[in-house]
Specification:
Blueprint (H helix, E strand, L loop, with lengths): L1 H20 L8 H24 L7
Amino acid sequence: MSLTWLIAFLVSISLRAAGIAHPHPFYVNHLLVWFLVFGPSLLLLIYFLVKRSFSLNPSI
């Protein structure tokens, strides 16, 4: 758990340093944001549907 906090702290410091070095606003493509929000759940849905279609047990 402390490793997770250490990584979060390092990311926080690096983002702060990047903000100081580049003070202009950072514009992100809206499509990228939607993909990052809904992409993992859609990939899991596709994985489970494919896994279910190739399952050896037809009752599931």
